[in-house]
Amino acid sequence: MPIAHKVVAITGASSGIGEATARHLASLGAIVVLGARRTERLDKLVAEIAADGGTAAAIRVDVTEPADLRALVDTAVERFGRLDVLVGNAGITRIGLMAELDVAGWSAMVDVNVKGILNGIAAALPTFHRQGRGHLVTVVSTSGLKIVPTQAVYAGTKNAVRTFLEALRQENTDGVLRTTSISPGYVRTELIDTAVDDPAVREEVRRSMAELGIDPVAVARAIAFAIDQPDDVEIGDLTIRPTRQG
Ligand code: NDP
Predict the structure, then answer these.
(1) CATH number for the 3-240 domain, one of 3.40.50.300, 3.40.50.720, 3.30.230.10, 3.40.30.10?
(2) Is 187 in the pocket of ligand 1 (CB under 6 A)?
(3) How many alpha carbons fall within 13 Å on the CB side of residue 234?
(4) What is the pLDDT of residues 165-208, one digit of tens each?
(5) Which of 171, 174, 109 is nearest to 143 (CA)?
(6) 58 CB less than 6 Å from ligand 1?
(7) Cβ contacts of 55-62, under 8 Å, gap ≥ 24
(8) Burial code of 148-172, b = ≥16 C-beta within 10 A, e = fewer?
(9) Of 154, 159, 180, 216, catalytic
(10) What is the pTM of this model?
């Protein structure tokens, strides 16, 4: 099945990469089901996609709540008959040396970036197996590929997800499930707005992100590429980073 008419649920669709992915997939004819906590943004996005001739629905999703992920999957199935793809995109980061002991930040990253993806897997797998087909796409990070100081826990959460997907791939060689890990480098989004408490450091990170970061639509195109493959072709890993990123 080509990308047009596929039903794609996206977590973290209210800004950045998730929003760009929703717009891009909808422009290619996919039906998008959007989840995030900021519903006013989702509702606006649904209306804009509809005004452009696309099809979208939205539901409030906090990925730390298993029931919210089940509701996202149910919305896709009840409104559009099936779920072809779940894009596990919602994520947060905190930047800081481990010695700063940002225990609350570490915990939040594990809750959203790791448990949030597990909640999505738990919600979608039964539907994928019942349908005899499904595709799980996760947005991980180049932080997990090149480990740098100040991003240890964030990188660890992303590599945990990479591990889950490789295991899922090996456990599902019957052709039912495709798994894809997308690793963006620096992307110009709101991600860093809550990443650092010190306003001066935050401004500095923002400035370098604005200079070096790529447009989120670059990641959206990569996600579309993975989704658009024929059923017997799985794009396992894709890295998209600024050409000038070290
Ligand atoms: P944004 O901050 O713009 O988007 C993050 C999204 O995640 C928002 O839509 C937010 O929605 C959602 N989100 C956060 N917490 C929760 C939660 N508990 N439940 C549901 N949704 C949540 O950043 P990006 O677009 O950059 O981030 C998207 C993904 O890309 C993340 O996984 C991030 O780690 C990854 N990434 C980003 C890179 C970058 O340079 N920007 C680089 C590599 C990876 P809301 O607040 O409305 O719930």
Answers:
(1) 3.40.50.720
(2) yes
(3) 23
(4) 999 999 999 999 999 999 999 999 999 999 999 999 899 999 98
(5) 109
(6) no
(7) 55/26, 55/31, 55/80, 56/22, 56/26, 56/31, 56/32, 57/32, 57/33, 58/13, 58/33, 58/34, 59/33, 59/34, 59/35, 60/35, 60/36, 61/11, 61/35, 61/36, 61/37, 61/90, 62/37
(8) eebbebbbbbbbbbbebbeeebeeb
(9) 154
(10) 0.98
186 given a catalytic annotation: no
Helices (DSSP H) in the chain: which residue ranges? 16-27, 39-51, 66-80, 103-109, 116-131, 152-171, 199-212, 216-227
ipTM: 0.99
